[in-house]
Design brief:
elongated; 17 strands; oxylipin biosynthesis; single chain; 9-stranded antiparallel sheet; metal-binding; fatty acid biosynthesis; Catalase HpII,  Chain A, domain 1; 952 residues; two-stranded antiparallel ribbon; alpha+beta
Length: 952
């Protein structure tokens, strides 16, 4: 049935997908119109039809017994009667007096059944002032906030021609004058026209209209000084009698006389006869009594949309197709489910030339070599460029739009709680960022099956990645390595096929020793490991779309789990708010692994992080119970989840990241992300001129997804391949006197061996041992030996090879294309990448050209800026996604407030940090933590034979 409607339509840009992108941009512009109207008209309202003189829930629609046979479609059956909701309104988006020149509108929701309803929207003029959605939104922008005759004139005669062109503006003004010059005395005596076409099953396109039933009495002369005279008139009328309209249709004749795409052309009755099909009755009632007023308020909360119907009655034409996205965005904005932050005019005018100037400057001087104020401003413009060009939505979207039932409102509890699976992270798009949502992209995917094994990834790993000697990152400690794995487990996880289902096969280079792919398995001349499970993709697109089995939101799911069943299992018995602990440690489950939200690739460092933050959750619970004795256990648990997740996000933003990117510019930039810029007038002036949105810390702003719906990306996954951070051996020490307890290899503290070891060592000694030890540097020739022959899920893998293969098969561009896509100059020779003679020789042996270099290899080989723990190319994905993870999340922006977190919860996050978490649960470590640095910097070492300062 939908296909039968499409034959009447022509898509802007030549395809439904191209048109969808246009409509999404127009929908955002409409939200900005709504915001400006709200500032003028006394609060956020509908983008159009803000004021409703009548809104009732108890109307009825009955189809005529003699309904023509060709119009008997779906719910349109002879004699069928349905309840209906009716809203009659003034068309303006500003709540103004009823006497102001304006159109009037009718919105009717016909309720056929629990899962079926039909929204009919009509306006009191037979044609639209706009031919298409661009003109419609252009008119709305020109007239936004026009609440006086002077402002209306300025909008019509100055702003409108600039927006839509002189010719279109003249035509639109002519239509508006014709539509509004007539005096309206009663909403009951107006005729309301759909103006756009809808499908009527096999009968094809129709226009519909609601006209007063024969015998409707004219209105008395109104008191036009009364701003609410239309309400008083129809209220008085309904107090005496019912109000009745005939629902009529006009059928499509031909594209010239009854066009579907151009809503500004009238379907004249002499060409398309008006056929009555049903009668809409608003019963006699007192609309001013309490129950009726309450009903009117409920109706005013409704989001009407012509796409809330069935495929047999789907809307047709450009304006109608735009309405789905536009009305959804407008209603979500009005109801506080979606948000928009307009960019000040000064920012829009000044940004392009200054951004271009920085682009030219950076050809000679990279941002990190500029003086501090300039480097900070450079980062602002770099992030703007990345937001504009490097957020690519991969989630399949409906194009063209499809009819749908009225969506249910968000569950009330999820307005103030995180769901476990990430749904309703954005209340207006429940599935955004949820478990199973597709990974997005920062760069267009480059799917090259012909290069999957070129050069051989085993050769690349052996020659360029495998650790030959341990290269330490001396500015960090091993807690930094454990922390990032702790975070990545919250953010990203690709689902893998089960054993024997579907494998990737990588041939070994000639002369290689055989490989055992399973414990005790046969020797083979290839490496084999489970392939990722892809998502279905539209025909013709490469099969490189993958879903995230974690939620994309920063929600602590590595602690709490990705579904409610797991979450309940992890909690204290009988619905307690806390997480289950046994003697301060996570309880053990099958195979000796702990019960926690995510336990893959488990080792002692992860155990320390999970144990520490499980204890922190329970400490928050105890504090909430003490401060708010009437708070139930479920409320305590959910609030503690919010607090701990936000604290983790803050620690990562203002502590871990500045520790690994140890420069003053990054430290200032990330603290600005969380708490706003310093009180330096020059920095604040720069932001005021160029990016006023950053004058406050992100938690004090509104959610903003920028140019694509929120998701984490495949490119983000690639730059967080930081396995070189893991050492191959560890010295476990006692923190009181610095005595060595034992030296262990990674395999000794990995998998099921981790929990007995941390219980034996103790959390405080474990944290101390990792706090004084250095992780590996993120560079070539430093991939942990223990991960080169790593047993996982019944497979033996070389994780270095897997990293290379996964990145290639997921369509992440090779290194040179990757850096060019992130607005860095391409390298033209191997010498530009490294000055190390040995590495240079190996690169030339392995790769035929610089364009063939693997992304992971290039990122590790690149000389990073001074103080950086990873490359500037990787940093570009980071600077884009680091703020995005905060900015998109309502629980870290608009709902980061005492009403949701409680005052205690907000205080806990704002005053907390990694040091406070460690000291709350291991106070004996106070003297060992760095005094003027993050807990991820090297700790003070206690020399054997001295007193470490403990009071134990």
């Amino acid at each position: 049935m939908a296909e039968s409607g499409q034959r009447y339509e022509r898509y802007e840009g030549g395809s439904p997908e191209a048109e969808r992108l246009v409509f999404e941009r127009l929908a955002k512009e409409l939200m900005e119109v709504q915001l400006r109207n709200g500032r003028t008209g006394g609060g956020m309202s509908r983008a159009f039809h803000a004021k409703a003189p009548l809104a009732v829930e108890n109307a009825r629609l009955r189809f005529h017994d003699d309904l023509p046979a060709e119009l008997r479609v779906g719910f349109a059956r002879p004699g069928a009667e349905y309840p209906a909701t009716v809203r009659l309104s003034n068309a303006s988006g500003i709540r103004q007096g009823d006497g102001a020149p304006d159109l009037r509108g009718a919105a009717v929701r016909v309720r056929v059944g629990e899962d079926e309803s039909h929204d009919l929207l009509a306006t009191s003029h037979p044609v639209s002032h706009a031919r298409d959605a661009r003109e419609f939104v252009g008119f709305a922008k020109a007239m936004a906030g026009a609440d006086t005759p002077l402002r209306k004139a300025f909008g019509l005669f100055v702003k409108l021609p600039l927006t839509v062109g002189v010719g279109a503006a003249i035509r639109m003004r002519r239509t508006i004058r014709a539509a509004t010059r007539r005096t309206v005395t009663s909403l009951a005596t107006e005729t309301y026209f759909s103006r756009g076409a809808v499908l009527w099953g096999d009968a094809g396109p129709v226009h519909y209209l609601l006209r007063p039933a024969q015998g409707t009495a004219p209105a008395l002369a109104p008191d036009r000084e009364d701003p609410d005279f239309l309400h008083r008139e129809i209220a008085g009328r309904l107090a005496r009698t019912e109000v009745v309209f005939d629902l009529c249709v006009q059928r499509f004749v031909d594209e010239r006389r009854t066009p579907v795409e151009d809503a500004s052309v009238e379907w004249k009755p002499e060409t398309a006869p008006v056929v009555p099909v049903a009668r809409l009755t608003v019963p006699r009632q007192d609309v001013d009594e309490a129950a009726a007023r309450a009903a009117a308020e409920r109706v005013d909360e409704l989001a009407f949309n012509p796409w809330y119907t069935t495929a047999e009655f789907r809307p047709l034409g450009n304006i109608n197709r735009a309405r789905k996205a536009a009305y959804h965005a407008s209603s979500a904005h009005r109801l506080g489910l979606a948000f928009v932050t307009p960019e000040p005019l000064r920012n829009r005018l000044l940004t392009p030339p200054v951004s271009a100037a920085f682009g030219l400057l950076n050809r000679a001087v990279p941002w990190h070599r500029l003086p501090l104020p300039l480097s900070l401003l450079n980062l602002v413009f770099l992030r703007r460029t990345l937001r504009r060009h490097n957020l690519i939505d991969t989630e399949p979207r409906e194009a063209p739009p499809r009819a749908q039932p009225v969506p249910p409102p968000p569950p009330e509890r999820l307005r103030t709680e995180r769901s476990y699976d990430g749904t309703y992270g954005d209340l207006s798009v429940p599935g955004m960022g949820a478990v199973g949502a597709a990974f997005g992209r920062n760069l267009p995917p480059d799917h090259r099956p012909d290069l999957f094994d070129t050069p051989n990834p085993v050769t690349v790993a052996r020659e360029l990645l495998h650790r030959e000697r341990f290269l330490p990152a001396t500015s960090l400690n091993v807690l930094a390595a454990a922390w990032i794995q702790f975070q990545v487990h919250d953010w990203v996880n690709h689902r893998r096929h089960g054993p024997g289902e579907r494998s990737v096969e990588v041939p070994l280079p000639p002369g290689s020793a055989p490989w055992h792919n399973t414990p005790g398995g046969p020797a083979e001349q290839l490496m084999r490991f489970a392939d990722n499970v892809g998502l279905p993709v539209p025909e013709g697109r490469p099969p490189i779309l993958f879903g995230n089995t974690a939620s994309h939101w920063w929600d602590g799911s590595e602690l709490y789990g990705e579904d409610e069943r797991t979450a309940r299992l992890l909690r204290e018995p009988d619905g307690g708010a806390g997480l289950r602990l046994e003697d301060g440690h996570l309880p053990l489950g099958p195979q000796g692994l702990p019960l926690t939200g995510f336990q893959d690739n488990w080792w002692m460092g992860l155990s320390a992080m999970h144990t520490l933050f499980a204890r922190e959750h329970n400490a928050v619970c105890a504090a909430l119970r003490a401060e708010y004795p009437s708070m139930g256990e479920e409320h305590v648990h959910q609030t503690a989840r919010l607090v701990v997740s936000a604290l983790i996000a803050k620690i990562h933003t203002v502590e871990w990241t500045p520790a690994i990117l140890a420069t003053e510019a990054i430290d200032l930039a990330l603290r600005t992300n969380w708490q706003g810029p310093p009180r330096n007038w020059l920095d604040r002036l720069g932001l005021w001129l160029f990016e006023a949105h950053s004058l406050k810390g992100i938690p004090k702003t509104l959610p903003d997804h920028h140019t694509a719906p929120y998701s984490l990306t495949e490119d983000f996954v690639t730059v967080y391949r930081m396995h070189p951070l893991i050492p191959d051996d560890f010295e476990l020490c006692e923190h009181h006197f610095g005595q060595r307890l034992e030296t262990v290899g990674f395999t000794d503290i990995q998998g099921a061996a981790a929990e007995p070891r941390i219980r034996k060592t103790g959390l405080a000694n474990t944290l101390y041992s990792f706090g004084i030890a250095h992780p590996g540097a993120i560079t070539l020739h430093n991939f942990p030996r223990a991960l080169r022959h790593f047993e996982r899920d019944g497979e033996i893998i070389d994780l270095a090879v897997v990293d290379l293969v996964r990145t290639r098969r997921r369509g992440v561009p090779r290194y040179n294309d990757f850096r060019a896509g992130l607005h860095k100059r391409r390298i033209r020779s191997f010498e530009e990448l490294t000055e190390n003679a040995d590495t240079l020789g190996r690169l030339k042996e392995v790769y035929r050209s610089v364009d063939e270099i693997d992304t992971v290899v290039g990122l590790f080989a690149e000389n990073p800026p001074t103080g950086f723990g990873f490359s500037d190319t990787a940093f570009r994905v980071f600077i884009l996604m680091a703020s995005r993870r905060l900015q998109s999340d309502r629980f870290l922006t608009v709902d980061y407030r005492p009403e949701v977190y409680t005052p205690l919860g907000i205080d806990w996050v704002e005053k907390g940090g990694m040091n406070s978490v460690i000291l709350r649960h291991c106070p004996e470590l106070a003297a060992l933590l760095p005094r003027d640095a993050s807990a991820f910097a090297p700790w003070r070492t206690v020399r054997p034979g001295t007193d470490g300062g403990s009071d134990d």
